[in-house]
Design a protein that fits this description.
This protein has about 300 residues and is an alpha/beta fold. The chain has 12 helices and 7 strands. The chain is globular and about 60 Å long. It holds the Pfam family Methyltransf_12.
Length: about 300
């Protein structure tokens, strides 16, 4: 990490955008150049308001191997659980789900929850021929509004639940535990470092340099439309925050706190940001309930569109 980048990140944490801009003005590394461009044209809004940047991000770099590992892991979950119904929380464009559904024991019925219209429409197109119940909503109202008898054999979320603040995620998991047979969560094992500390700034700088180096022709699009808003959102006071990540051990504790049992964490893939892992856990749906079925379209679970979720 160069002194210029460290000074820029420290200035961002102090809310001094001008000082941060001056620190990286020369743009001598991929991260410095990306930060300089972003800070010169800072705009409001969600990082997911630009689907092209998000798509370029997940189409390239280390995401190719990452999503291959995710697909294989979900296939193993299906092989063990033998589900007939599946809930995908924050499905995005279906990138992780579509290849997983080609596995031998994939479910026949899929419910999608996704707040981005563009990404949900893409997922529905990708799943043409499948029995799909697509919900244009955030997971909070969906989970809170599930009918008493609604049960999903498997509920999965790939790189989406970390977009929920910790206390919101607590409520969502607690709302889901009685409606889920098996929970499968794929996330990143991110170290717990004091906010804006020297260790935190070094971690961010080194990780984002690695990530940006994986892109060539699309680097500017990926940086300005996705990665830089995510980075600055973690530091700038009052900025639109996109992620609330945590170590894998904290994920396990949070899932257990919500009432899930048999929690297992399996490392999946080394990635430029942090290692990816699969967490599986058992829910506690009403066994043998005659009313247990996936909720019908148009039930109170549907909600209103808001910002979408991150790489999934």
């Amino acid at each position: 990490m160069t002194n210029h980048i460290d000074e820029a990140l420290r200035a961002l944490a102090d809310g001094d955008i001008g000082r941060a801009r001056d620190a990286v003005r020369d743009g001598r590394t991929p991260l410095a150049a990306a930060l300089a461009g972003h800070l010169a044209a800072t705009r409001d809004g969600s990082v997911y308001d630009q689907p092209a940047a998000f798509e370029a991000f997940i189409d390239g770099g280390g995401n190719v191997g990452l999503y291959r590992a995710v697909t294989e892991a979900l296939g193993r979950v299906y092989a063990e659980a033998r589900p007939s119904s599946l809930l995908d929380i924050g499905c995005g464009d279906g990138r992780a789900l579509r290849p997983a559904l080609a596995s031998e024991h994939a479910p026949a019925s899929v419910t999608l929850v996704e707040p981005s219209t563009a990404l949900l429409d893409a997922a529905v197109r990708a799943l043409a021929g499948y029995d799909v119940d697509a919900r244009h909503t955030r997971v909070e109202p969906f989970a809170a509004g599930l009918p008493a008898g609604a049960v999903f054999d498997v509920a999965q979320s790939t790189f989406a639940l970390h977009t929920l603040p910790h206390e919101v995620r607590d409520r969502v998991l607690a709302d889901l535990v009685g409606h889920v047979g098996v929970l499968a969560v794929v996330e990143f094992d991110v170290p717990d470092l004091p906010h804006a500390s020297p260790e935190h700034r070094r971690f961010l700088a080194e990780a984002y340099e690695r990530g940006l180096a994986e892109y060539d022709a699309d680097r500017d699009l990926v940086a300005q439309g996705f990665l830089m808003p995510v980075l600055t959102g973690q530091l700038v006071p009052g900025a639109t925050r996109a992620t609330w990540e945590q170590p894998a051990s904290r994920w396990a504790e949070q899932v257990e706190r919500a009432g899930f049992t048999e929690v297992r964490v399996t490392r999946l893939h080394d990635y430029w940001w942090s290692p990816a892992f699969l967490l599986t856990a058992a829910g506690s749906p009403a066994a043998g309930s005659p009313a247990a079925e996936s909720p019908a379209a148009g039930s109170p679970a549907s909600g209103s569109p808001t910002a979408a979720t991150p790489p999934r």
